[in-house]
Write a structure and sequence with these properties.
alpha/beta, two-stranded parallel sheet, binds farnesyl diphosphate
Length: 221
């Protein structure tokens, strides 16, 4: 959800206003994605590197997250199940409690699942999987020479979720920024100059239509 800050700056508003507009847009886009029949979406809300931002902005983002997690309908939209991935140990008790609440509140819905990546980094996720496997090896439950890619997939945050088909990055940057590193080996990418708060369902549809015309070979012919 990139470009919130630039969106706000263009309007002479504080960056936090951009994040608020971005959070509102997440509901619009996720509901729409659910209506299209998309089963999983992962939204990058806060990276392991975002702690480097000025304290004021980090505090504003955490306050916004707390607001949105509390206002369950506001975040989840209709029939969307919310789950959180990332290192929750650095998040406040309050945020952790609200994450538990919203996960519980939305768990029986049968529409789309939206993963919110909070204090998430792809490298951190892979390191965590390696630690879990090393622990199993140390206990003698697995032989190191028998560790497979599948076993790593089973130890990331989302073992039961398919790899990412399409990664959309708005706002002009052409990089992955530590997002879904393991799951993006054969992802398709779609970039746009539009700042995230201005990213509409029409833009989302354009990305999907473009994706549908790609020829995915997964290394084959
Ligand atoms: C990137 O824009 C955006 C973020 C680092 C935060 C995204 C967070 C939200 C949309 C709000 C919180 C989420 C929820 C689910 C309530 P940027 O700040 O890097 O923008 P810039 O590149 O224009 O400065």
């Amino acid at each position: 959800m990139d470009g919130n800050g630039r969106w706000a700056k263009k309007r002479g508003l504080p960056r936090s206003a951009g994040h608020r507009a971005g959070a509102q847009n997440l509901k619009t886009i996720s509901e729409f994605a659910g209506e299209l029949g998309i089963k999983y979406i992962t939204a990058y809300a806060f990276s392991t590197e975002n702690w480097k931002r000025p304290k004021e902005e980090v505090d504003a983002l955490m306050a916004l997250l707390l607001d949105y997690l509390r206002d369950k309908e506001q975040l989840a939209g209709k029939n969307v199940t919310i789950r959180v991935i990332g290192d929750r140990s650095a998040l406040s008790d309050e945020i952790n409690r609200e994450i538990d609440n919203i996960e519980e509140y939305t768990k029986d819905r049968d529409g789309m699942v939206m993963y919110l990546a909070i204090n998430y980094g792809g490298r951190q996720e892979i390191a965590r999987a390696v630690r879990r496997l090393a622990k199993q090896a140390a206990q003698g439950d697995v032989r190191p020479e028998e560790i497979t890619e599948e076993m790593i997939s089973e130890n990331i945050y989302t073992p039961d979720v398919p790899e990412a088909d399409l990664i959309i990055r708005p706002s002009g940057e052409l990089r992955l920024s530590n997002f879904l590193l393991w799951q993006s080996a054969y992802s398709e990418f779609w970039f746009s100059d539009i700042h995230w708060p201005d990213f509409t369902t029409k833009d989302f549809t354009r990305a999907i239509l473009d994706y549908q015309n790609r020829n995915r070979r997964f290394g084959g012919v």
